[in-house]
Specification:
The chain is mainly α. The chain is built from 5 helices and no strands. It has helices spanning about 5-15, 20-35, 35-55, 65-80, 90-100.
C-alpha cells in the first residue's frame, strides 16, 4: 500500500467515530470512491469496527445506581482536597484505604 493510502488508513478509526474534520472526511470518501484497493480496506475496517461495537457491552445503570456512583465520585474528588499537605496520589490512596 502506498504511503498516501497508509496515512488515510490511520485515519479510519477517527472516521468511523465521527472525529474527522469535514475536509479530511471528504478526502477519505473521495479516496474510497476512486481506489478499489482502499475501498476494500475501508469495508473490511468498517466491518471490524461494527463487530467491536456490538461486542462491547453497553451497561445501563438504574437511576439509584447512577446516583450512588455519582455521589461516590463526588466524595472521592472532595476527599482529594481534605489534606492540603498530601499530593493527589496520597489523598486518593487514603480515601481508598478508608473504604476497604
Amino acid at each position: 500500500m502506498s504511503p498516501n493510502l497508509e496515512s488515510f488508513e490511520r485515519k479510519l478509526p477517527a472516521y468511523f467515530d465521527g472525529g474527522l474534520k469535514d475536509a479530511e472526511r471528504a478526502q477519505l470518501e473521495a479516496l474510497v470512491a476512486s481506489s478499489a484497493e482502499f475501498a476494500k480496506l475501508f469495508r473490511r475496517k468498517q466491518q471490524e469496527t461494527e463487530a467491536l461495537r456490538l461486542a462491547v457491552p453497553d451497561p445501563k445503570l438504574d437511576a439509584e445506581a447512577q446516583e450512588s456512583l455519582e455521589a461516590e465520585i463526588r466524595e472521592a474528588i472532595q476527599h482529594l482536597f481534605n489534606d492540603e499537605s498530601a499530593g493527589p496520589a496520597r489523598r486518593l490512596t487514603n480515601w481508598i484505604r478508608e473504604r476497604l
